[in-house]
Amino acid sequence: MIKHLKIIDYALASLFRRKYKSLAIITAFTLVVAALASILLFSSALKIEAAHLLDSAPDLIVQRTTGGRHDLIPAEYTEKIKDIAGIGAVTGRYWGYYYDPLTGANYTVQGTDGTAKNLELLDGRLPADRGECAIGAGIAAIKKTGTSGELILVNSSNTGVLYEVVGVFRAASSLLTNDLIILANEEVIDFFGYPPGKATDVAVQVYNKNELQTIAGKVKKLLPDTRPITKSELVRTYDMVFNWRSGLMLTVFSAAVIAFCILAWDKATGISADEKQEIGILKAIGWDTADVLALKFWEGLIIALTSFLLGTIAGFVHVFFLAAFLLAPVIKGWSVVFPEFHLTPHLDPYIVFTLGFLTVTPYVASTIIPAWKTAITDPETVMRG
Questions:
Q1: Which of 74, 274, 275, 359 has its CA at 20 to 30 Å from residue 330's CA atom?
Q2: Is residue 297 part of a domain?
């Protein structure tokens, strides 16, 4: 142990003697790790957000289609669906999208019958009467309002409607509630001007989850103008939403990998004349090959771990505290008008291990290999160059 502590002390002194070169390597290495960490952490965080979002999704959603597009569904369809064996609750849902020209943000307006699963109120309650609403934390921030405040929206008749904010809520996923406005079902019908007896879609509970596809087929056969959507299909849809510009992210990832490979290859192709002379002197004064390899191992590990920690911290801060401003436009695209939301901080040990294995291990190996070639050479030959 004492021997290795002495070697580590000498390794640190050796790195400080070449401080400019060491700093340049650490800077380049840190940028590569930060880029890789940002991509991995951002992708993982989005998957977690999507998983939380879909936890509350219905087992089956039935939409009516006209001309291949989503259309309002007649209320009597719910009664027909209830007659199918294996189905539990069948509920018509009322919702729609609202663009706010004042803030340039898109909101989701959803109706409620007084209950909202998986939504945790930060303050207040859910709307129970007309003229009341509950809003997500993102809307509360962008509108600078809260419980007992007011919210003005322009309905389908181009008339401003004043709502009293009776609640501000959140959920496990900020994607679920950040841009959400909850009104009573009747209020949503009036706001969007939906005709009587029509709903946006129908949420269906299926008792046996293994029969989802079978139930969906029965619904399609019973109501040919409908489109049943299972929860698994929603998962695939959200994957496509988050990755529709994944090609650009892969380009960033490839650029980072290529940059790191160039760095590692440059290190592996050889060491400088000064380093060779240093190894030759160490061998001449009594160091054996194992000691030289231990020295170079610790030098490489110190640089790699320093860069890895700095890069991982930088990637974490970029994704979770700076809203991944370098990557978010690639993922969001047009949806940058969505009220700003922050991902829930999460550090997956698997990601840390994978990132370390892909960066630290190759660099340390590329440091030891050329040192070993020099260490097994006669010291006099090395010092003479």
A1: 359
A2: yes
- Is residue 325 a part of any domain in this protein? yes
Residue with tokens 């293994």: 210
Is residue 81 domain-shared with residue 216, that is, in the same domain?
Answer: yes
Of the candidates 159, 138, 57, 112, the one whose C-alpha atom is nearest the C-alpha of residue 343 is: 138
How far apart (Å, rounded) are the C-alpha atoms in residues 350 and 371? 31
Question: What is the per-residue pLDDT for 336?
Answer: 44
Q: What is the dihedral of CA 305, 48, 241, 96, to 10 degrees?
A: -150
pLDDT-derived band at 332, boundaries 50, 70, 90: low
Do the domain assignments include residue 69?
yes
Q: 225 with 76: CB under 8 angstroms?
A: no
Verify that 180 and 324 share a domain, yes or no.
no
> Do residues 178 and 341 touch, judged by C-beta distance below 8 A?
yes
- Say if residue 174 is in the same domain as residue 74: yes
Identify whether 237 is part of a domain. Answer: no
Q: Pick 182 or 238 by higher pLDDT.
A: 182
Largest CA distance in the chain: 96
pLDDT at residue 360 greater than cutoff 60: yes
Determine phi and psi for 321, rounding to 5 degrees. -115, -20
Residue 164: name the closest of 150, 184, 154 by CA: 150
Strand 60-66 versus strand 226-230 pairing type = antiparallel
**Same domain membership, residue 145 and residue 38:** no
Same domain, 41 and 114: no
Asked if residue 344 lies in contact with residue 63, where contact means CB atoms within 8 angstroms, the answer is no
Q: Is the entire prediction scored with pTM above 0.70?
A: yes
Query: Of the residues 206, 230, 254, which one is the last residue of a structural domain?
Result: 230
> Residues 151, 163: contact at Cβ < 8 Å?
yes
The DSSP code sequence of 149-212 is: -EEEEE-TTS-EEEEEEEEEEE-SSHHHHTTEEEEEHHHHHHHHTPPTTEESEEEEEES-GGGH
Q: Which amino acid is at 183?
A: L
Q: Choose the final residue of a domain: 203, 230, 257.
A: 230
For every residue of 131-144, DSSP letters joined together read TEEEEEHHHHHHHT
Q: Which domain holds residue 97?
A: 60-230
